[in-house]
Write a structure and sequence with these properties.
Elements: H1 2-17, H2 22-36, H3 42-54, H4 59-98, H5 105-128, H6 132-147, H7 153-168, H8 185-209, H9 212-225, H10 234-242, H11 249-259, H12 269-301, H13 305-308, H14 313-338, H15 345-359, H16 365-379
């Protein structure tokens, strides 16, 4: 139990201080878990990051869960998840209570969202669009999401991008040394079976019982499972599921901007949506629902990790998937973010100001959010 408490405290420290998005989170994790505490080697850490990059879900949160599981089994994974996630969840729930989206800072936060997503797009493109083939995949994904906007478009884009990656690209197989894991293969299989049961069973039960909260849980669960490419990509999935039935587009985009102000994983934006729908318990329900598939995937795959590390097909598929999700994110940046935010020359000028501060002058994300709040109060009364 002392080890579980240690995992929680270390993760809580990271959850309070880790600003800057998924890439920055991985840097914080390496400094704390590899360099400072030596819980795992640098090579094992790199392989673990690679595993979580091709799994659907929030990659940085999954790395934290996996390290917790390697250190303390399933309870260690839960402790690592709660420590890293609860600070931002509670802050976003509190923000819904204290700052209703009808006041003047909403437009400022929407401008923040435009700048942050563009910044993320550029960063992802630099790392993933290294050839004309990957650029082509991204452009096709962008056009598909803009002009074939259906419930299955984004899933189809991800699957097709993976198949193109397997067919076109080459990827070396980087192997590491063996790793001792406190999870059995039987435990892994149980978690993967539970993952599938929930994916199939939740919508069926929600329809049969006509229970609104079960429906909301199912929507968050599927959104958390079907995300490839990092926390920003959950934006179009959540937008499709919750706008305008459960909240308005302005509330949605303002909440996404607000999520940039808090440390920890961007997936906690779901808690903002849940809190708008149902207060404190709605926010906590959203946290559990959107992170549950990530937890089950990590617990299910870790026992088979050694064999997976030796395969190249997953690495090849990831090249195509990463290109495809850039197109998905670009489509979401155009609609709903730009279409609901930039209306006149003042909007465009203030957006450019925020983007330059973030991208060129390297302002911390929380400073950009504060600047957005000030802009909203000063220019949009």
């Amino acid at each position: 139990m002392n080890r579980i408490l240690e995992i929680f405290i270390v993760a809580l420290k990271l959850g309070i201080t880790s600003f800057g998005g998924p890439t920055a989170h991985l840097g914080y994790f390496r400094a704390e878990y590899v360099e400072k505490r030596e819980w795992l080697s640098d090579k094992v850490y790199q392989d673990l990051v690679a595993l979580c990059q091709f799994l659907p879900g929030p990659a940085s949160s999954q790395v934290g869960m996996a390290i917790g599981m390697m250190r303390g089994g399933l309870l260690g994974g839960i402790a690592a998840f709660l420590g890293f996630t609860l600070p931002s969840v509670l802050l976003l729930i509190l923000a819904v209570r204290l700052m209703p989206p009808s006041i003047d800072w909403v437009q400022g936060l929407k401008l923040v969202a435009v700048a942050v997503v563009l910044h993320a797009l550029i960063g992802m493109a630099k790392g993933s669009l290294q050839s004309w083939q990957t650029v082509g995949i991204a452009l096709l994904a962008l056009l598909a999401c803009l002009y074939l906007s259906t419930a299955v478009t984004q899933i189809a884009v991800i699957i097709i991008s993976a198949l193109i990656g397997i067919a076109l690209f080459k990827a070396g197989s980087e192997q590491g040394g063996p790793v001792a894991l406190p999870l059995s293969r039987r435990t892994g299989i149980i978690n993967l079976v539970l993952l599938v049961i929930l994916l199939v069973g939740l919508p069926v039960c929600a329809n049969l019982l006509q229970n609104d909260w079960l429906t909301v849980f199912d929507k968050f669960y599927r959104s958390g499972l079907l995300v490839f490419g990092g926390g920003h990509v959950v934006l179009p999935l959540l937008e499709r599921e919750f706008v305008p039935v459960f909240l308005e587009a302005d509330e949605f985009i303002a909440g996404y901007g607000l999520a940039q102000a808090v440390p920890g994983p961007l997936f906690t934006f779901a808690s903002y949506i849940g809190a708008v729908i149902g207060g404190l318990w709605g926010g906590l329900l959203a946290m559990v629902a959107i992170f549950l598939p990530a937890f089950l995937l990590v617990a299910g795959c870790l026992p088979f990790w050694q064999q997976m590390r030796e395969k190249t097909m997953m690495r090849k598929a990831l090249i195509g998937i990463n290109a495809g999700v850039i197109g998905i994110l670009a489509a979401a940046w155009i609609d709903p973010i730009i279409s609901h935010t930039l209306f006149d020359i003042k909007d465009y000028l203030l957006f450019v100001l925020l983007f330059c501060c973030l991208h060129y002058f390297k302002f911390a994300p929380w400073l950009i959010v504060l600047l957005g709040l000030v802009i909203g109060l000063v220019f949009y009364r």
